[in-house]
Design goal:
single chain, 376 residues, alpha/beta, Transcription Regulator spoIIAA, four-stranded mixed β-sheet, 4 strands, elongated
Length: 376
Amino acid sequence: MEKRDGPDIRITSSKRQVVVTLQGEVSLRNVTPFVAALRDIATDQPVRLDMSGVTRFDTAGAWAISTFKTRLDDAGQSLEIAGADDGPRGLLETVTSAMPAPTQAAATPATFADRLAGLGMAVTDGVRFVLALVGYFGLFLARLARSIRHPKEFRLTALVHHCEDVGLKAVPIVALMAFLIGVVLAFQGSTQLRQFGAEVFVVDLIAISILRELGILLTAIIVAGRTASAFTAAIGSMKMREEIDAMHGLGLDPAMTLFVPRILALVIMLPILGLIADLMGLLGGGIMAWVDLGISPAMFTTRLVNGTDISHVIVGMIKAPVFALIIGVVGCHAGMRVKSNAESLGRMTSASVVTAIFAVIVADALFSIFFAQIGM
């Protein structure tokens, strides 16, 4: 037996059913303990509600009982109302009939027209997204040209800070990644080329792979995951706290203040990071070739200088500024799309990383086709 505050609520249980006895006033003023008591009742037995001692009853109590009855019905049990006069019983029936019934939309199979419409909407959204990125790229170029015409508006301190953040702090992870990639290429290449007695060509394999493709591509992917997310989080947080609106109110241009230093820092630092990755990749490959194949550092260097054309280095370095622009524009654009809630910030941060990496890989594939066509 249990007694609670508010109306006198007595609950007794047996093997057959649960009996709830109400006495006193059950109204809006004290319906909360009544709702709590009904919530604590298990729904594994039928329930009998004795209302013979109720002195006052309004729609709040009727709502509580109706909600409890719905919970019992969902569990496959029944609710019996006993001792209720015509007034409370009629009010209970009225409230129960007025309760909104959950509606489930009938699942209709998608037709060809629906699929075609969905495809069209996806293509349209994709085109709008690409056009928005192009617009942000044009905005960056316009503000960069403006800063050249008006040097006093250019924020050199912010540029130096972002160069340190996106460049200097990324050197350890980029160098380690490139070194290990060089080691893996040398080991796997030596394993395959040893079958043909062409171990010495592992130097060419390492040089071309690192200098032309893997060095700058993997560096750009690491920077995309590290920097695009940072740009989105920083600008998105400012957008959530309405700092962007405050900048407009102070007469500051967010594109000049936020976009130009970040994107320009990437354009400056990504080629440097690419060169570091190239050197560390060659170093890792040279050490592995020395350990596994017995190719001395002097022989490795001679083969590298004589057998590797400078065009491979040029191809890799040409890609770096383009990759930097893609990563910077995607990160800033995603930051400006953040809404006023934390869930939007997390979603856009993840989306910026995925989009930046995908765009970098697509750009690298286009570069490969272009250089193949011009014979470079």
